[in-house]
Amino acid sequence: MDSVRKTFDKWAKNGRADLMEKEHGKNAIKILKTISFDKPFLFLDFGCGNGWIVRRISKDPFCKKAVGIDKSKNMIIEANKKKINNNEEYANTDLENFKFNNKFDIIFSMESLYYVDSIELALKKIYKLLKPGGKFFCGTDFYSDNKATAKWAKMMKIQMHLHSKQEWISFFKEAGFETKTKQVKDLKNKKKWKREFGTLFIIGKKPERQSSN
Asked: Taking every annotated instance into account, which residue ranges of this chain make up the domain Methyltransferase type (predicted)?
């Protein structure tokens, strides 16, 4: 079992999954509120944890299906325990092996992408999973511009890819995305880095028209 899966299996059992919802929920919801859900859509949360984002999205009247995937079996068990309606679907799988019959309108990921073996390959897979015009919202507190969080990898002793804001932008553009970023700060938080840097969201849009190359 890889160290990332082992760590999150442990967190699912000791209540850390619920803590992550409290830690990241405020900024994640700020971004979700900027998305225009004005027509029927399919939604994927990569690294869904206990399913808190999937549950929220599944209640939207235009949601056809909200899917959550996580490589931690225990996280998916927790997500299924908390399931509130039939629009939710969860799968214990990593991104590389995930398969779905339809393309997604929105893919979301909060504090997950930097755990993958290859960010480049992960972004290629996400690009393929999106419909033309679909968007990927990737949130991370762990980026090199934010010095306070750069020590997380050593503390956790698991694989975490640390990159700068500019490097993240480059990864997205190389995968074919039209790319922009947004810093979501929590100005009333006790932690200085949350007030000054906050969560970096890299937002990639799959072009409406695909290149013939």
From this structure: 44-138
The region, left, alpha or beta by phi > 0 then psi within -120 to 50, assigned to residue 157 is left
Range of the domain at 156: 3-205
Q: Residue 150: how many CB atoms within 10 A of its CB? A: 14
Give Cα separations from 165 to 3, 132, 146 (angstroms).
26, 25, 9
Tally of domains within the chain:
1
Which residue is associated with the tokens 């999205």?
57
The model's pTM: 0.90
> In this structure, is residue 171 part of a structural domain?
yes
pLDDT digits (tens, 9 = 90+) for 150-170: 777 677 777 788 999 999 999
What's the pLDDT tens digit per position in 174-195? 999 999 999 998 878 888 878 8
CATH code for the domain of 153: 3.40.50.150
Distance, C-alpha 16 to centroid of its chain: 17
Residue 194: inside a domain = yes
Residue 211 lies in a domain: no
